[in-house]
Specification:
The protein is an alpha+beta fold and 152 residues long. A 4-stranded antiparallel sheet has the order 1-2-3-4. Strand 1 and strand 2 form a beta hairpin. Helix 1 runs parallel beside helix 3 and helix 2 runs antiparallel to helix 3. The longest helix has 26 residues. The protein is globular, with a radius of gyration of 17 Å.
Protein backbone atom coordinates (compact mmCIF):
# COMPACT_ATOMS: atom_id res chain seq x y z
CA UNK A 1 0.00 0.00 0.00
CA UNK A 2 2.89 2.37 0.75
CA UNK A 3 4.36 1.89 -2.73
CA UNK A 4 0.95 2.47 -4.32
CA UNK A 5 0.36 5.70 -2.36
CA UNK A 6 3.91 6.94 -3.00
CA UNK A 7 3.53 6.49 -6.77
CA UNK A 8 0.05 8.07 -6.72
CA UNK A 9 1.13 11.09 -4.66
CA UNK A 10 4.42 11.68 -6.50
CA UNK A 11 2.83 11.50 -9.95
CA UNK A 12 -0.01 13.80 -8.86
CA UNK A 13 2.40 16.25 -7.27
CA UNK A 14 4.65 16.20 -10.33
CA UNK A 15 1.81 17.02 -12.73
CA UNK A 16 0.47 19.72 -10.40
CA UNK A 17 3.89 21.42 -10.10
CA UNK A 18 4.67 21.25 -13.83
CA UNK A 19 1.23 22.59 -14.77
CA UNK A 20 1.34 25.46 -12.29
CA UNK A 21 4.83 26.45 -13.47
CA UNK A 22 3.74 26.48 -17.10
CA UNK A 23 0.69 28.55 -16.18
CA UNK A 24 2.87 31.00 -14.26
CA UNK A 25 4.66 31.86 -17.50
CA UNK A 26 1.36 32.85 -19.05
CA UNK A 27 0.28 34.73 -15.92
CA UNK A 28 3.61 36.60 -15.94
CA UNK A 29 2.88 37.91 -19.42
CA UNK A 30 4.62 35.46 -21.75
CA UNK A 31 2.91 35.36 -25.16
CA UNK A 32 3.77 33.68 -28.45
CA UNK A 33 1.96 33.98 -31.76
CA UNK A 34 2.86 31.32 -34.28
CA UNK A 35 1.61 29.96 -37.54
CA UNK A 36 -0.09 26.96 -35.92
CA UNK A 37 -0.21 27.60 -32.18
CA UNK A 38 -0.52 30.74 -30.07
CA UNK A 39 0.33 30.97 -26.39
CA UNK A 40 -2.19 33.41 -24.92
CA UNK A 41 -3.94 33.91 -21.57
CA UNK A 42 -7.56 32.91 -21.06
CA UNK A 43 -9.46 32.30 -17.83
CA UNK A 44 -11.98 29.54 -18.53
CA UNK A 45 -14.97 29.89 -16.22
CA UNK A 46 -16.49 26.60 -17.42
CA UNK A 47 -15.13 23.18 -18.26
CA UNK A 48 -14.23 21.90 -21.75
CA UNK A 49 -15.33 24.41 -24.39
CA UNK A 50 -16.61 26.64 -21.53
CA UNK A 51 -19.53 24.31 -20.80
CA UNK A 52 -21.24 24.71 -17.43
CA UNK A 53 -19.91 28.25 -16.95
CA UNK A 54 -23.41 29.12 -15.69
CA UNK A 55 -22.61 27.18 -12.50
CA UNK A 56 -20.14 29.95 -11.56
CA UNK A 57 -18.81 29.51 -7.99
CA UNK A 58 -20.50 26.12 -7.58
CA UNK A 59 -18.40 24.55 -10.34
CA UNK A 60 -15.19 24.49 -8.32
CA UNK A 61 -16.94 22.74 -5.42
CA UNK A 62 -18.56 20.20 -7.75
CA UNK A 63 -15.19 19.47 -9.34
CA UNK A 64 -13.53 19.18 -5.94
CA UNK A 65 -16.18 16.63 -4.92
CA UNK A 66 -15.64 14.66 -8.15
CA UNK A 67 -11.86 14.62 -7.66
CA UNK A 68 -12.37 13.47 -4.06
CA UNK A 69 -14.54 10.62 -5.36
CA UNK A 70 -11.83 9.59 -7.82
CA UNK A 71 -9.22 9.63 -5.04
CA UNK A 72 -11.39 7.46 -2.78
CA UNK A 73 -12.15 5.01 -5.62
CA UNK A 74 -8.49 4.65 -6.65
CA UNK A 75 -7.30 4.18 -3.06
CA UNK A 76 -9.97 1.51 -2.44
CA UNK A 77 -9.12 -0.18 -5.77
CA UNK A 78 -5.44 -0.51 -4.72
CA UNK A 79 -4.23 -1.62 -8.16
CA UNK A 80 -0.66 -0.40 -8.52
CA UNK A 81 -0.90 -0.30 -12.33
CA UNK A 82 -3.54 2.44 -11.97
CA UNK A 83 -1.44 4.58 -9.64
CA UNK A 84 0.44 6.59 -12.30
CA UNK A 85 -2.54 7.42 -14.56
CA UNK A 86 -4.62 8.14 -11.46
CA UNK A 87 -1.87 10.43 -10.19
CA UNK A 88 -1.81 12.22 -13.55
CA UNK A 89 -5.59 12.64 -13.46
CA UNK A 90 -5.71 13.79 -9.84
CA UNK A 91 -2.74 16.17 -10.14
CA UNK A 92 -4.09 17.76 -13.30
CA UNK A 93 -7.64 18.04 -11.96
CA UNK A 94 -6.46 19.56 -8.69
CA UNK A 95 -4.30 22.03 -10.59
CA UNK A 96 -7.33 23.21 -12.57
CA UNK A 97 -9.48 23.36 -9.42
CA UNK A 98 -6.72 25.33 -7.70
CA UNK A 99 -6.89 27.84 -10.57
CA UNK A 100 -10.61 28.27 -9.97
CA UNK A 101 -10.02 29.09 -6.31
CA UNK A 102 -7.04 31.41 -6.89
CA UNK A 103 -7.76 33.02 -10.28
CA UNK A 104 -11.53 32.65 -10.60
CA UNK A 105 -11.17 30.36 -13.63
CA UNK A 106 -8.84 27.80 -15.15
CA UNK A 107 -5.72 29.33 -16.68
CA UNK A 108 -5.64 28.21 -20.32
CA UNK A 109 -2.97 29.28 -22.76
CA UNK A 110 -2.47 26.97 -25.74
CA UNK A 111 -4.55 27.97 -28.75
CA UNK A 112 -4.37 25.64 -31.76
CA UNK A 113 -5.50 27.31 -34.97
CA UNK A 114 -4.01 25.29 -37.81
CA UNK A 115 -6.67 23.95 -40.15
CA UNK A 116 -9.43 24.72 -37.68
CA UNK A 117 -9.95 26.76 -34.52
CA UNK A 118 -9.68 24.59 -31.44
CA UNK A 119 -10.44 25.41 -27.82
CA UNK A 120 -7.76 27.04 -25.69
CA UNK A 121 -6.31 24.47 -23.29
CA UNK A 122 -3.43 23.82 -20.87
CA UNK A 123 -0.96 21.11 -19.87
CA UNK A 124 -3.34 19.75 -17.21
CA UNK A 125 -6.05 19.21 -19.82
CA UNK A 126 -3.61 17.18 -21.91
CA UNK A 127 -2.58 15.09 -18.87
CA UNK A 128 -6.24 14.38 -18.06
CA UNK A 129 -6.68 13.11 -21.62
CA UNK A 130 -3.51 10.99 -21.34
CA UNK A 131 -4.78 9.49 -18.05
CA UNK A 132 -8.20 8.66 -19.51
CA UNK A 133 -6.64 6.94 -22.55
CA UNK A 134 -4.28 5.07 -20.20
CA UNK A 135 -7.26 3.85 -18.12
CA UNK A 136 -9.09 2.74 -21.27
CA UNK A 137 -6.06 0.79 -22.49
CA UNK A 138 -5.65 -0.89 -19.08
CA UNK A 139 -9.32 -1.86 -19.08
CA UNK A 140 -9.31 -3.27 -22.62
CA UNK A 141 -6.01 -5.07 -22.11
CA UNK A 142 -6.06 -6.32 -18.50
CA UNK A 143 -2.95 -8.44 -19.13
CA UNK A 144 -0.99 -5.18 -19.12
CA UNK A 145 -2.06 -4.69 -15.57
CA UNK A 146 -1.66 -8.30 -14.39
CA UNK A 147 -4.61 -7.72 -12.03
CA UNK A 148 -4.20 -10.92 -10.02
CA UNK A 149 -0.63 -10.14 -9.00
CA UNK A 150 -0.90 -6.39 -8.92
CA UNK A 151 -2.95 -5.65 -5.82
CA UNK A 152 -1.29 -3.80 -2.99
Amino acid sequence: MAKFLAILILSALGIFIVDQNIKSLSLDGYRYYGEYIDLILVFNKGVAFSMFAFLKEYLKWIQLALVSGVIIYIVVLKEICYSVPAGFLIGAALSNVYDRFVHGGVVDMVYWHYGFDFAVFNFADVMIDVAVVWFIVLNFYPKLCKLKNNSV
